[in-house]
Automatic annotation (TrEMBL):
Alphabetic keyword roster: Lyase, Pyridoxal phosphate
Gene Ontology annotations for the cellular component aspect, listed alphabetically: cytoplasm
Location of the Amine oxidase domain: 563-1010
InterPro entries on file: Amino_oxidase, Aromatic_deC, FAD/NAD-bd_sf, PyrdxlP-dep_de-COase, PyrdxlP-dep_Trfase, PyrdxlP-dep_Trfase_major, PyrdxlP-dep_Trfase_small, Pyridoxal-P_BS
Gene3D superfamilies: 3.90.660.10, Aspartate Aminotransferase, domain 1 (3.90.1150.10), dopa decarboxylase, N-terminal domain (1.20.1340.10), FAD/NAD(P)-binding domain (3.50.50.60), Type I PLP-dependent aspartate aminotransferase-like (Major domain) (3.40.640.10)
Record-given protein name: Aromatic-L-amino-acid decarboxylase
Coiled coil: none
Lyase as UniProt keyword: yes
Molecular function GO labels: aromatic-L-amino-acid decarboxylase activity; oxidoreductase activity; pyridoxal phosphate binding
Protein's GO biological process: amino acid metabolic process; carboxylic acid metabolic process; catecholamine metabolic process
């Protein structure tokens, strides 16, 4: 190969590496091959004639890459990081190109001297004491070894030699061989396997010492063992302490171990192969407290400092001890500069050595100290995100607190669950994690390894883990049911009766309007058959009687495991019907009930409150019976908080309070338009409120009008959050169709997700199937040979059914109704789907190291002006208020709604933090206001299984549309019994957009099936079954 060919080959190889790196995220991290795969692909002998470099490079992709475990993939979370960066790769190329063998200074002066300088740079960077550096007047210094395994072995051999010579001086009569048989070394039972192997290779028994509850080796343990061994006539020579153990990233206590080793003339070697990289950040150097007692110290830049393997940095306080152990002189190795610079052949086991310092030099220069610190801190931030995921899911437990980038967790329960989880994850090959043992329990180790890792990669890994965990639990459900939980026995009948009492008056008004709504107002009114509209609207009457257990059960498929689907299933179980399957598209139950942890606070990503804190609300009753509402029950006061303007002023309280209550009166006036039902069209809610605000402003003193206007227009943004969309799309006349249950809004202190427990615990085993998105519902078959309906999932699995309860969100129906149902839905149903509004709401949780606000003062309400709200080119205009959380003094929650909520989802976390901080600084008038330490946000709009938040009454919406959406197909007056039943918050007039509305709708459709089952004495009759 000539120079030109080399250049072409080199460029192609660089392109190959770049493309490979860019494609890592799309590749399965583990290969799909079996042992011996390569032998079947490559010839048995080398080629007789040279081949082209193009053929060789092509074969790398064809034969080698399929068998590679992608250690630098962002989906690799096993072991510890193996560093990789473009500067290091180029440094490696140059090192190979130069091709020197730097065993002595003369063999390659640059190779030796650059290594001396780099070891000094790196030692200073991590904060090592000067005694370890080459620039010190003493005998200390650093050398690059191939691995931490080599470094440990080198130090153990040096300790063995040093101790033997020391004992020989004390006992000249003793033979060196005899002395060496008495030597013993110590390490913790958590240290790396390479430490134990070093003992084998050095012929020094390595005693594994027990650790404390945090897996740390303590001084008392070491001291007691030393005393015991001395009494036995053994000679301790070395202790290997670990900073960042392999299993749990535990830290041995150097401040306790060091003095003991020094007092007993025991060499203390510190293995900080992984954790040592974190010491480039000053805030983590406390973890190496006591390093001044060490004789040697080792970190692996090839783990976490972006230097490609191999590059293991070893420092010693007295390099003479290494030279005494490894120096062998030959005439051909001698040179006249000996003693003026290190001959590194005497600091290591092999003679030859590569130019490793070149790539370290490149990385330190091209990243700089700040770049390396940013890399470490970013990795740890991602690890914090994963830790919070684990804490937020009650199926898992952290076995020990997170240490740097390692999270150790397990599935709650028997080890076989965690073992099965690991097996499934390995089989899937999409992420790579490995097991470990903690106090005899099997755990999963998850490490942030790749420099390419981003937040979405952590989310991807968590989704894979929870998906497989759901499968594990499904397969183990019978065993898990042994845990006894208090059953939920309260009949739903009294709950529905209480709710129904609130509906009676509104129903009468709504039904009286139905005919005029459908005929367009004027002209001759069409007769509406009572069996259609009235039957569509009326809730099924609850019958507490059980079904006859001797009769056959119909087959029911429930699409969606949110509140509506679970409530329907729970009601079916209460009445003795268990032949149902719930198909949930995601890997968790609850739908928009999704509680996560941020720091010390529960962050409700979706549903926030029980809207109506009294026994008339079935969700309140459910929470109370489950013991989730411990007194005193917290009811937020929406009137509290500072109204701040965009010019950085807090509006005076007398003005803001008066304006606030004035706006609430306007809101009540808008709500009464529905009950008036005078036939007059008031247009959009924005127009109605805008006119009324202008009218009310005249009642304020002139000097207060500017601020009062800002308060009231800012409050329109809060109303947007109830609807989830711009008020110009909301019907003023239908706004009041919402029925407000008394009792105020109530938060569930330990997470809204707790409300699901009584609904889940009584479900039949394997009835709830996760990760089962539905692709098609075929319905309407009337022949004996075909089921009445077949629900097909995206994975191809099909479920026949007599009844299908559809609980998917309205937003999903808007996007997919034409593809989801075969045959298509009738025009009346499609019109309801299209005409009803569906809003977007998201939340952004901000965690601060120190709060800048006064706690329990209600947060910050953004008093936008009308002109500011008219220009919505910036998504931050969708922020209505930034509230404090009652359970935390350092977390704020920003509410954002409308199209701006969807725009926010397109921004990166950094952009969101920057924009929120800019708004806060603008409205508080404080340019020094800090950035949040952590951010957590919802993304409901882009989620294909939600496509938004909840329904509202749009300009063309009517209560009739909600009734049409709720009506079964075929209708109740058709000869064929209903097949498709629809539930969800959008199908419940008066209680749309609420969790209790979703619950009532699920109960309603379950009751419909129960009544039909009683009528038919089992599954529904087909026309041919008539007798």
């Amino acid at each position: 190969m000539d120079t030109k060919e080399f250049i072409d080959f080199g460029k192609a190889a660089i392109d190959f590496v770049a493309n490979y790196t860019d494609s890592l995220r799309e590749r399965n991290v583990l290969p799909d091959v079996e042992p011996g795969y390569l032998s079947d692909l490559l010839p048995e002998e080398a080629p007789q004639k040279p081949e082209t470099w193009q053929e060789v490079l092509n074969d790398v992709e064809r034969y080698i890459i399929p068998g590679v475990t992608h250690w630098n993939s962002p989906h690799f979370h096993a072991f510890y990081p193996t560093a990789n960066s473009f500067p290091a790769i180029v440094g490696e190329i140059l090192s190979c190109g130069i091709g020197c063998i730097g065993f002595s200074w003369l063999a390659s002066p640059a190779c030796t001297e650059l290594e001396v300088i780099m070891m000094n740079w790196l030692g200073k960077l991590i904060g090592l004491p000067n005694e370890f550096l080459n620039c010190n007047d003493g005998p200390g210094g650093g050398v690059i070894q191939g691995s931490a395994s080599e470094a440990t072995l080198v130090c153990l051999l040096a300790a063995k030699e040093q101790t033997t010579r020391r004992i020989k001086r004390l006992h000249p009569e003793w033979d060196e061989t005899f002395i060496k048989t008495k030597l013993i070394a110590y390490t913790s039972d958590q240290s790396n396997s390479s430490v134990e192997k070093a003992g084998l290779l050095a012929s020094v028994p390595m005693k594994l010492l027990p650790t404390d509850e945090k897996c740390s080796l303590r001084g008392e343990t070491l001291l007691n063992v030393i005393k015991e061994d001395l009494e036995k006539g053994l000679i301790p020579c070395c202790t290997v302490a670990t900073l960042g153990t392999t299993g749990t990233c535990a830290f041995d206590n150097l401040e306790e171990l060091g003095p003991i080793c020094n007092e007993n003339d025991i060499w203390m070697h510190v293995d900080a192969a992984y954790a040592g990289a974190a010491f480039v950040c000053p805030e983590y150097r406390y973890l190496m407290a006591g390093v001044e007692y060490a004789d040697s110290f080792n970190i692996n830049p090839h783990k976490w400092l972006l230097v490609n393997f191999d590059c293991s940095a070893l420092w010693v306080k007295d390099s003479r001890r290494l030279i005494e152990a490894f120096s062998i002189d030959r005439i051909y190795l001698a040179h006249d500069k000996q003693g003026l610079a290190p001959d590194y052949r005497n600091w290591q086991i092999p003679l030859g050595r590569r130019f490793r310092s070149m790539k370290l030099w490149f990385v330190l220069r091209l990243y700089g100290v700040e770049g390396l610190q940013d890399h470490i801190r970013r990795s740890l931030k991602l690890a914090q995100i994963f830790e919070k995921y684990v804490k937020s899911d009650n199926r898992f437990e952290l076995v020990i607190e997170r240490s740097l980038g390692l999270i150790c967790f397990r599935m709650k329960g028997d080890d076989k669950l965690t073992k099965e989880l690991l097996s499934r994850l390995t089989a899937e090959k999409r992420i790579y994690v490995i097991p470990a043992k903690f106090h005899e329990k099997l755990i999963v180790r998850f490490v942030v390894c790749s420099r390419l890792s981003r937040e979405e990669d952590i989310t991807f890994a968590w989704n894979e883990i929870t998906k497989q965990a759901a499968e594990v639990l499904r397969s183990q459900t019978p065993a898990l049911q042994e845990e006894s939980l208090e059953p939920f026995t309260k009949s739903t009948a009294d709950i529905a009766t209480r709710i129904e009492s609130l509906n009676i008056e509104a129903k009468t008004q709504k039904i009286s309007l139905l005919s005029s709504e459908k005929c367009g107002g004027g002209g001759k009114k069409q007769e509406i058959p009572p069996c259609t509209k009235l039957a569509k609207f009326e809730s099924c009457q609850l019958d507490p009687c059980m079904l006859d257990p001797c009769k056959p059960e119909p087959t029911v498929v429930i699409i969606g495991g949110g509140m509506a689907g679970l409530s329907a299933a729970h009601r079916l179980v209460q009445c003795g019907l268990q032949n149902f399957t719930i198909l949930e598209a995601t890997d968790r139950p609850g739908g928009r009930i999704h509680s996560c942890w941020l720091g010390d606070v529960v962050a409700e990503m979706g549903a926030t409150w029980i809207e109506g804190g009294c026994v008339a609300n079935p969700v309140f009753t459910l929470a109370a019976q489950e013991g989730l509402l411990k007194p005193p029950v917290f009811r937020p006061d929406p009137s509290r908080g500072l109204f701040c303007t965009s010019d950085g002023r807090a509006i005076d309280l007398p003005v803001s309070i008066t304006a606030y209550h004035t706006f609430r009166q306007i809101e009540q006036q808008a709500a009464t338009l529905f009950s008036l039902g005078c036939g007059r069209t008031h247009g959009t809610l924005l127009n109605f409120m805008g006119v009324r605000i202008q009218q009310e402003l005249h009642n304020f003193p002139e000097e207060q009008r500017y601020d009062a206007a800002r308060v009231m227009y800012g409050m329109t943004n809060c109303v947007r959050c109830r609807c989830g969309d711009d008020l110009s799309l909301v019907s003023a006349d239908q706004f009041g169709s919402y029925i407000e249950i008394p009792g105020g809004n109530i938060r569930v202190p330990l997470g809204y997700v707790g409300i699901l427990a009584p609904l889940l615990r009584d479900l039949p085993s394997c009835s709830l199937k996760y990760c089962k998105p539905v692709s098609c519902v075929r319905w309407g078959a009337i022949s004996d040979s075909c089921p009445r309906a077949v629900v097909k999932c995206c994975d191809g699995e099909e479920y026949p059914a007599d009844y299908v309860i559809v609980t998917v969100p309205l937003g999903v129906l808007k996007h997919q109704h034409d593809k989801l149902f075969c045959p298509a839905l009738p025009a009346e149903k499609v019109e309801a789907i299209c005409k009803l509004g569906y809003g977007y709401v998201n939340k952004i949780f901000l965690e601060y190291a120190r709060p800048f606000w006064v706690w329990k003062e209600g947060g910050i309400k953004l008093a936008w002006s009308a002109d500011e709200l008219a220009d919505r080119c910036d998504w931050v205009k969708g922020i209505s208020n930034i509230e404090e959380l009652s359970t935390s003094q350092h977390v704020l929650c920003a509410w954002i709604c409308g199209r701006e909520a969807a725009d926010m989802e397109l921004c990166s976390d950094e952009e969101v933090v920057e924009s929120i901080t800019r708004v806060l600084r603008q409205f508080t008038g404080d340019p020094t206001l800090p950035y949040p330490a952590n951010l957590l946000r919802s993304k409901w709009c882009m989620d294909q299984y939600f496509a938004g938040a909840y329904s509202y009454m749009g300009l063309d919406s009517t209560v009739g549309h909600q009734c049409d959406l709720a009506s079964p197909l075929p209708g109740t007056c058709e000869p064929i019994p209903p097949i498709l039943l629809f539930a969800g918050e959008a199908t419940i007039p008066g209680h749309y957009s609420t969790v209790h509305g979703a619950r009532l709708s699920g109960i309603r459709e379950a009751e419909r099936i129960i009544q039909l089952t009683k009528r038919f004495g089992g599954p529904p009759k087909k026309p041919s079954d008539k007798s």
